[in-house]
Amino acid sequence: MGLCDRFLVIVSATAAVSVKMDIMFSDESPSSRYFLLAGIALGSLLMVFTQPPFGQDLGDHRFADQRDFLGLPNFFDVISSLPFVFVGVAGVSFCLRNRLGDLRIAWLSFFAGVALVGPGSAFYHWTPSNASLVLDRLPMTVAFMGLTTAILGEYAGARIGKIMLAPALILGLMSVLYWHWFNDLRLYAWVQFFPLTALPIVALVFRRRYTGQGSLVIALVCYVLAKVAEGYDREIFNLTHDLVSGHTLKHLLAASGGFAILLMLKNRTRLQ
Question: Which CATH number fits the domain 3-55+71-267, given the four candidates 1.20.1070, 2.40.128, 1.20.1050, 3.90.25?
Fold first, then answer.
């Protein structure tokens, strides 16, 4: 069973809760919403650890497109990692040049993580192994947790996001080390998939404070499509007659999601 299949029940259960939240808690105090989010986070984490441990399938390192070009192995999966660098560096530059309040460090963490995914992913695809995959996944968790706490802070209050940033980053980094040390992907899977459901829930429960939330939706859709493309790596490669693989598309879609977030920050205005 694949990673996505193992956590389908968790994602479905969380999504079902999110559909009802706006009705259930529309008249409740903010503190009840905080407890609700904490309960969902802890509940989904416990659900993850009710699943049997599972490690990294070594077959996952054999990608569909293994063509060499200019002496570079797995050329297209390597080169398609570069957009992360461009988006991440542009985002870091934007954060340094603009006032983003107490959430500036969270946004910087997100874009720094995105930028570091580029060399981490390129190195991994140049020489795929569990050891090199660590350098790919570590910056991913920084990006996941930076984005989650930034969005949480913008909806639920900057103080909450600021307080949660350091613990979230530590948890994300530890999830990769836990997998590397014990060959158990459960915690890393939670770190990767929980934001996909947590962010829509936050948007439903709390009042938005900025315009441009359509860009956030686009970013989430891009990431979901990236995961689908990743899961159908060889099928997409065959369907396009060896033109492009699903994993190459995954890189481009995920980087596009990061770019959508950058556009959101650049173009939004604060609501009254």
Answer: 1.20.1070
